[in-house]
Amino acid sequence: MDDSGPPDRAAPGVSEPGAPDSDASGRAAPQPGVPGLRVPDPDAGARVAARIAARCEPLVNRLTREIVAEQAAAVPAFASLPERVRDLEVAASVRHGLRLFLRGARGEPVTGRDLLLFRERAAQRMTEGVPLAVLLSAHLFPYRPLWRALCAQARPGEEEGLRHLGELMFQAIERAVSAVSEAYLGQAALAERGEALRAVARTLLAGQDADDVAARYGVVLEPGYRVLYLAVGPAGDAGDAGDTGDTGDTGETERARDADAAGSAGRSGGSAGSTGLVVEVRRRLHTVQAELDRHVGEPVMSWFGPEGGHALLPLRVPAPAARLARSLADGGVAAHIGTAVAERRADIPAAARRAARIAEVARGGGRPAGLYELRDVLLDYHLSAPGASGAELGGLLDALDPALLETLEAYFAADFDRRSTARALGVHPNTVDNRLSRAGALLGADLRTSGGILLVGAALAARRLRAATGGEAGAR
């Protein structure tokens, strides 16, 4: 009796020795000698997915532009971001995410370093007040247009590749959500510590006993501090800083109201313009805080409003150097920094007023962004002091017509070189002489004498300060 059964067949999912590779569509090829039998190829889907991803690679830049435009329309919070942030930083993150996915689809490994950009942007958005839900929505948004593009590039018979790309997309979403959430929440924890330091700084600047507040937040107080006032704006902007004149308070109440208003605009959504401004202000202040922390080597107590504010540096650390202002400029922030020393904590309010006035005098006098002590602006500081004489001095030049005033300013800027003055004004040197003589006669000051030079130079400085402070310098 012949008990030999039918020939054995391979179990599903198991290839037999010598089984051929899949065909171009990704399906297993027929086994020679066994008509109709196909052996699954576990790598077929990955190979097809890689081919589809390669076809999408040239479309990345166009996809990025389309995604950013769709995202701005679909996510109002991102539409209101400053144009530079939306069109450069958000676009860079989208482009990076697309290329990262396509690279993984081609079989290249994705490491933690590849997610660094997502982490940095998440921490940055947290400081700018973007809610976590909005941020996650923005990171998930590009995957839908990307999937549509992958499907459009797939060819008949490449369904297995699309299935593989779907699996990879879920993995990519998991990685992105994890990295973004972790970085955002980590920055939020740091921000909570910053709030505690700001509460202590505000108490010290107000001249109140800060022992209880510091103990509540676990902040160790120093015997004395170097008090900085930073009048900040975008790099290249020489706009007016807030009024922090020597009026007996540090201006904290007004700055607190401004800061609260900025925070409210960010929380409520506000208009596109107001929200974009809030983001820019928060970004500048974050840059300032980060540079101060880097200089000291630990978190610095500070109290900032939209146009800057005070920072308290322990006296045990080296005094900040000019490179602090340069570092801020590299970060897109122009800062006129006034500095004063409070040997005791009780001296902090007076030092805060002095530092603020130094910064405002430096800025109002047309000096470049930088770090200034009292000795650096001593004359202007003195001329801007409250009193009738300061007002009288500042108004001395009001009797001159614009041509004479312009000539005086150019003459002093050229260090009393009449030929350089003439070149700057585009006139003949004799014209400069005639104008100087007329100006001296009107002012009752002989510009050929040291006394006349000192008087007119002081008047020019007082006039600049009066213009920078809206006519208040020397008039209180």
Structure description:
The chain has 476 residues and is an alpha+beta fold. The protein has three domains: 45-188; 222-378, Alpha-Beta Plaits (2-Layer Sandwich); 388-468, PucR C-terminal helix-turn-helix domain (Arc Repressor Mutant, subunit A, Orthogonal Bundle), CATH 1.10.10. 58% of the residues lie in helices and 7% in strands. A five-stranded mixed β-sheet has the order 2-3-1-4-5. Helix 2 (60-74) packs across helix 4 (83-105), helix 16 (402-413) crosses helix 18 and helix 17 (418-425) crosses helix 18 (429-443). The longest helix is centred in the middle third of the chain and has 47 residues, at 159-205. The protein is elongated, with a radius of gyration of 34 Å. The protein starts with 43 loop residues before the first helix and ends in an 8-residue tail after the last helix. Mean pLDDT is 80; it is low at 1-26 and 238-274.
* Strand and helix order: HHHHHHHHHEHHEEHEHEHHHHHH
Helix/strand structural class:
alpha+beta
Q: Please give the largest β-sheet.
A: 5 strands, mixed
Distance between the termini: 125 Å
Integer count of domains: 3
Strand runs, count: 5
Number of helices: 19
The gross shape turns out to be elongated
CA radius of gyration is 34 Å
